[in-house]
Amino acid sequence: MQTNRFLTAFWAxxxxxxxxxxxxxxxxxxxxxxxxxxxxxxxxxxxxxxxxDFFNAIQDKRLDDFxxxxxxxxxxxxxYIGLAVYRLYLRQMLQIExxxxxxxxxxxxxxxxxxxxxxxxxxxxxxxxxxxxxEDLRFFVxxxxxxxxxxxxxxxTLASFIGILWTLSGTLExxxxxxxxxxxxxxxxxxxxxxxxxxxxxxxxxxxQFNQQRYEADYRFSLVRLRENAEGVALYRGExxxxxxxxxxxxxxxxxxxxxxxxxKQLNFFTVSYAQLAIVFPALFLGRDPARRADADRVRxxxxxxxxxxxxxxxxxxxxxxxxxxxxxxxxxxxxxxxGGCGADRWRxxxxxx
Length: 354
Fold this sequence. Notes:
Helix content is 83%, strand content 2%.
């Protein structure tokens, strides 16, 4: 139920830009970034295949192949560097295009028909709309692009390496049952278990990060408020009262930060341990054939290359998925309470009572 509500809110926030008249540049950038991401996956596959040939050449002392493969690696490395740099550059360009469009829309909604004033009077829990427009729009766009493109790369990489892993796995006889490509199934179970455990351990971070942003915004606003009311505070000598208020708000910031630290420490213990286990996990199931184990090592049992290690590479994306809910919910609050947002009918009904 919560997932459905989140997806509904996410789609309501993300869709308008991609169906607007200004979407052409964004669509072009998105397609280009996706193409670069797929090209990087292809290069990763080629590097892993190169790795196998390269170590075979060293083992067999084939000098001509050794120099030829060095040249091939040089081409692949330069191509990877160029693609990786421009993928990030174009993704950031898309991020600022999308954020600029959302910024204009939310500013217009916030200022239309004195929404900024009426929100304070109606008080539906829409706290710090300035933070939501300035920060949550940035978080929303950044998380959406990073998470979406990261998951796309993970899925494509998984599909690309499944073929290699299936070939290496062979068939496992277990209790009289033959399991072809057994390492693929073990890797899927390994990745699935890591995803579920990451979600379970890291879930409290959603509320903690939400509260951290709220406390930070409250503290920052109290400082701005002193500057705006400097004359009155100086006239009535209210420095001690203001200092007490500052300390109280900052204490909330620090207390919540300690909660984030403790929960992040627990999550990091798990993710780092899971990553270390992933290094030896494939070898545990590759059988007793030394050649097969050597081949597996040449497929590079390291983060991002082996299928089992994909989960470690993208555990941060799973944490981002959970964190993504809070900015989406807060932005939905601003849109829903503004006269031009998705709660416009309710707004007009309330306005008629003034």
